Amino acid sequence: MSTLTKLNAISPIDGRYRNATEKLxxxxxxxxxxxxxxxxxIEYFIALCELPLPQLxxxxxxxxxxxxxxxxxxxxxxxxxxxxxxxxxxHDVKAVExxxxxxxxxxxxxxxxxxxxxxxxxxxxxxxxxxYSVKDSMNECxxxxxxxxxxxxxxxSNEWKDIPMLxxxxxxxxxxxxxGKEINVFVVRLQNQLKQLKEIPYSAKFxxxxxxxxxxxxxxxxxxxxxFANNFVNNSLKLxxxxxxxxxxxxxxxxxxxxxxxxxxxxxxxxxRDVWTYISMDYFKQKxxxxxxxxxxxxxxxxxxxxENSEGNLGIANALFEHLAAKLPISRLQxxxxxxxxxxxxxxxxxxxxxxxxSLLKGLDKLILxxxxxxxxxxxxxxxxxxxxxxxxxxxxYPKPYEALKELTRTNAHITKESIATFIDGLNVSExxxxxxxxxSPSNYTGI
Length: 448
Known about the structure:
Elements (H helix, E strand, L loop, with lengths): L17 H4 L3 H4 L1 H21 L13 H9 L3 H14 L2 H15 L15 H38 L4 E6 L2 E7 H21 L3 E2 L9 H6 L5 H12 L3 E2 L10 H29 L3 E3 L18 H23 L10 H6 L3 H20 E3 L1 H9 L6 H10 L5 H11 L5 H9 L5 H8 L10
Parallel strand pairs: 3-4
Antiparallel strand pairs: 1-2, 5-6
Helix pairs in contact: 3-4, 3-5, 3-6, 3-7, 5-6, 7-8, 7-14, 8-11, 11-12, 12-14, 16-17
């Protein structure tokens, strides 16, 4: 078998885009999943010692750091050792259990090693390890990138707040706006959705083979295992314990998490398409990096590739988020295995999202405002002040003002500053009103 490289990787996440996504390997690689499983098993054992179980009440707490070092000092060699054990067990979580027991043997605390994985099923480990890894990846990678993106858009919105711009509704010239305001629309949309995303708990299942703590209760019926499980998941792991459950987490909050990220990505697709269009309208130029090629055939072209790359990756991410949100909450009876293979792909839509966010930021850094193009577009569309004129005439109780402007704007091939002035001069209104109307132009009719 050849060594995996960027050139022979099947997925572009691990190939072409490895530089953009490499950090996510700390959360979603096979090795990372194993590490998070080890973490949960160790912290669970410590929690049993803290309870304490009768057989663990004399456990030396000075050993806690040594136990935690099993996952804190986790290495690729440890991962390989666990995979080697799995060749015999043919069970990935059981291999983790045996690995930890071997570590306990080495630490001379073998007497209590049967309390590793005590009373648990593999999903108690998977359904805590995976949300733990997702939470870490969001806090350390995805959320900072989204916040950086929002910060960048906020800065551009402020920088361009006074740039008048012809709006377009249905693709047609419409009442003018300001570029900064249009950027701010996306800022506020993203801020609102990010707030909702952050409010979704990272839910975890922890309750034995069918969610009832059966094994725990039959072994120690006098212990309040419900309180123990809540305390372990909510306080020790800083997750949110779902209760009641079957053998697996019901994934409803995870589905909400996927849907929330999908909405954020949809907003960014919308933004990418708008900026792409503005570039095609010559509202923006793009900085050229020496040596880069825009088109293999047309030397003059500088393609908006960063926005296109971002849009494409957001689309892939959303397709996967859609499947995760639709599939994971469904499981036959108390558990089937379809969630297991699907969950192994949880990092994939997050990786495509991360690629998209980085591409978008790169594209934004290349934008050069072409102010002359904005001004030219406004000057060529004096018809858009018709709304302003007819509204002022309504204020003055002028008869049928809308119809008068409709006649002007729809029968003249091209409305200019001069034709608007001529129209105003022909109105049966006071000179003060005519003067007021003539002050209105496409560049200052931008509202509030």
